[in-house]
Write a structure and sequence with these properties.
single chain, seven-stranded mixed beta sheet, 29 strands
Length: 807
Amino acid sequence: MSQTPASAPSASASAASASAPSGAGAWIGRSVPRVEDDRLLRGNGRYVDDLALPGAVEAAFLRSPHAHARIESVDVTAALAAPGVVAVWTGDDVAGLPAMLNKEELRTPPGLAELLDPTVRMTPMPLLAVEKVLYVGQPVAVVLAENRYLAEDALELIDVRYAPQPVLVDPEQALADDAVRLHDDLPDNTAVAVATRVGDPEAAFAGAHAVVSERFEAHRYVASPIETRAVSAQVDPYSGRLTVWSGTQTPHRLRDAVAHTLGLEPAEVHVIAADVGGGFGQKGILYVEELIVPHAARLLRRPVLWREDRNENLTASSHAREQIHRIELAADAEGRLLAVRDRITVNFGAYNMTGLVVPYNSLCHLLGPYRVPNVHIDVVGALTNTTFATPYRGAGRPETVFAMERAMDRLATELGIAPEELRARNLVRPDEMPYATGLVDRSGDPQSYDSGDFPELLRRAVAKADVERVRERQREGARDGKRVGIGFAMYIEATGLGPFETARIDITPRGRVRLAIGAPSQGQGHRTSMAQIAADAIGVPVEAIDVVGGDTDATPFGVGTIASRALVNAGNATHRAGLLVREKIVEAAARRLGVPACDLGLSDGTISAAAPDGPAITLAELAGKAPLPGTPEPTDGRHGTELSETVHFRPPGFAVASGAHAAVVEVDEETGEVDILHYVVVHDAGNIVNPMIAEGQVTGGIAQGIGGALYEEMVYGPDGQPRTGTYMDYLVPTSSEIPDLDMDEIFTPSPMNDLGVKGLGEGGAIAPQAVLANAVEDALRPHGVVVHRGPLSPSRVRALIRTAAAG
């Protein structure tokens, strides 16, 4: 990727650079090879399933085969007598434990509550179903046995009598007045509802030159990480303290939830996020299994392990993406947007797990990089008899970008304007930054785009895609039954979600730097990029830094790695902690060397005087001579003499990343196969810490987006039975299905943080569904095809052609 800045750093970014220590900048911006890869590639990773705790029992869950049913009876007598079984629990056995709520995700920020008065209904989930089940895969009982095989055998001996109830899988039908209610304590099946207005949309539509109205669907699919969920727990026989290992993205929230559920103090629970084989949001929430396993470890006084199989992951772990958009755009004769209206229906599944997170992300990202003076957006989340839905890489943005970018192409067709030109006429300009949309952001503050150059993103994408060459090929007609098409899609992403993140830096007696952060890694390369930030801030080589993430003892306070927030929050916490530790190091060296601190510099791990032959001391020598406990040096009372510092970074607002994608596809009219000939991505994530890691993040996101656009779909029958429960019928792309990517980037540093960085991990996944749908529709324009949903599998493409011909 190009590393030439497209614009100068912001004033705050420049100020941060000017105040950085001498020699700073040696590591940030370099493609340092990932230090974690050597261990992982050699097979030395330590995942939850690798722990092999002595004497551990294994858990297996009996899951409901019904989408909606009353539980009449559960008989576990035979299972208890099965070989190797240690315990069998039903809902009655854990009824004394509080039901599970993802409290932090369900919390509505005060500003948002005051301005928009949203509806957010709580649906606590019992740890094991008691009176009824609401989706196929809901846990009904758990068997704890000497190994998983014996536990699975015992599951088959549990006799459950169900009374099936009416099933709802369609979210719009679930919201009907006469729909059966899933939760008896709620008046209907509404999980959340929120609406917002800007300007006078009705007047704008009434006076518009052109109006388009469409119904677009974002289909349901699954994060499907290579490592399924897993959790293990053990009680220390001496202290009674509980240790939990999990593939979680939010270890501090898991710690607090376990403590609350079991009636413990948070300090009595130690959570460690082990190596994680992908999370993508699916591992960012709480699950009942993560609470039952620690409970079992305490009661049995033996270690307990559970890891899900692939069928459980596809059917019982959280799903994502399913939304219906009834969207309307109004424009003048020049194609300038006058207003947007959208009624968004989100399928929440059986439980409200994360409240407004996904629906409101969709609402406040709908306008994207476009200037829209009049807006009316209405979002409703529906409860249905399907597996609950939660954030998945992009978290509401791919869905809303699909609707908006598809609507922009439909408007371009209506007006007879090229799709890229229509977009160019409506983009917010760099000189308008910071740009206020009139909406309220997810934190409850007025939404503002802090920085960006959207026109430049589009210009570069159009140039790389070579539009005229594609149009020339189209004028030649089909070749061997294959037609080409080109599509564009743009997006913005508010990154760096608060409320805070923690970094603690300690200089060890050997002079190494130990950096502990509250945000664990699931493949993002934290051990490398965070070390680069710390190395520049302190003035030491990157190889002298050891990074620990996701350990609640190492950092008692933290939030986690979700919502494109780790680099912005943990990165800036690391930067500030590093500067403070550097200050302490120089002050300590000044006392040791008898030289004023202002005359000393720290570079490459050595503190030395500016004079050519002045005294010097290495960090290892300084740390090794630190005062022993009980014999501290005199201080002014503000700081101790230990070489350590802890910082909690709180972002003042969102850092807005952005991007433009373009795709050229070839569609076989006979088979319906879609072949990606050229995929262009131009993105802006502010200052880049490690270009190689950044490129990998964008590439991974695009690969998952292509999977959703062309291959992946979680299908339910009208009876609520999942029809895609294995990889035999749930199609995940491999590397051979992902084309080489034509990448470029621009740099508009964020003024919201010292490093000028923006979140990057989710951006690649946001636009592929929209850009590929636009490209396929463009290719099939001679047939009159309109793409309303994905995935664009061969069978669906053929159906589109047949339907258009019949129409």
